């Protein structure tokens, strides 16, 4: 471990430093979160696929055995029933406390741990804008939101400076889970430790202030912003918030209002009792969280929505065939790609959009070829007209990409396991052609 880092930790932790050194000998804490869009935490735990203990950081979270392997390819993971997440990482959304119906911006969203947690809390009535600046990471974010069945979301790939002016005054909640020096990730990621230096900490601090500067305009009056990092450095935590409060008298620091973790440092305008820190002595690898509220009015941007158009007959036929009802949904067609959601589709100016709503399918040769997201979405699960339940053996064949010799009505079908969709196939009456995405198949 880097000596300069350890010296700083000794100054920061004082009497708790020895306890911190002890935690470095232990494996990292691991956890998972039930996806409330699909399953409640008790039902997930009762399925008995892993030994789970309730997490102190979120009611939908669990701690699990740190030696457990292979959960990422478990069928419940594939079905989007849970998301694996370092336990303390769920604390920021607990403190943000998104409510059903809220509009939430997650400024630095990939790979989607917090976005998927927010989406589940705000439900189908709320709307999430999940933004990620890095293209490769944005695609991982999209696949996680797809697996967890999120429909009411817009996934953008932009810098906060580009995106935020278009969302001025529209958000009930904003999360800035900022890129940081990752001191809480040292046990998990060698790269974070290799990259560490005091200069890097300072560079991170400047970048964090810049992101906050962009993000704050998105909040409406009384809107709540949560700033979080997975690092311990005061320069990236209390000092960032102190600087921010000096520049923004329209923002007030709120008490995080939770029992887990411990108070932070009092620095300038930051009352340490109001912010929260989590160290490995607190059952998580490390997080800092500050909660702020906007107390003055904010001019609102006008969001442009996409006008509804008459749907081509093949789209109508597909939706009628596959769904019990879709009249309450908004349908959007762009370059032959069909998307669905409860909210109206939004049009941003010059912001790359990876996905909005459910990617339902694509028009190919006058018919709709459905997409995996259509069958995994939580919104459509109870509306699907054609479903078939697989047994364990059939499931194993399906995940390998094999055709299934099961008699079934002709056409596209959702394949289920233990009551939840796994994916889809196309039946000719006697055999179901496998449509499980090639990249997800087992070998
Ligand atoms: C701590 S991670 C986010 C983790 C995510 N919230 C989650 O829970 O899964 C920070 C993210 O910020 C992104 N990032 C890096 N530089 C950025 C910048 N200048 N502005 C906005 N985001 C940035 C990184 O690509 C990274 O995905």
From TrEMBL:
Q: Which SUPFAM superfamilies match?
A: S-adenosyl-L-methionine-dependent methyltransferases
What keywords were assigned to this record? Cytoplasm, Methyltransferase, RNA-binding, S-adenosyl-L-methionine, Transferase
Any GO BP annotation: RNA methylation
Q: Where is the SAM-dependent MTase RsmB/NOP-type domain?
A: 20-295
Q: Which residues form the active site?
A: 230 (nucleophile)
* UniProt-annotated binding residues for S-adenosyl-L-methionine: 108-114, 132, 177
GO MF annotations for this entry? RNA binding; RNA methyltransferase activity
Q: Look up keyword S-adenosyl-L-methionine and say if it applies.
A: yes
InterPro entries the record matches = Methyltr_RsmF_N (IPR031341), MeTrfase_RsmB-F_NOP2_cat (IPR049560), MeTrfase_RsmB-F_NOP2_dom (IPR001678), Nol1_Nop2_Fmu_2 (IPR027391), RCMT (IPR023267), RsmF_methylt_CI (IPR031340), SAM-dependent_MTases_sf (IPR029063)
- Record bears the keyword Chaperone: no
Question: In which family does this protein belong, per the annotation?
Answer: Belongs to the class I-like SAM-binding methyltransferase superfamily. RsmB/NOP family.
Under what name is this protein listed?
A: RNA methyltransferase
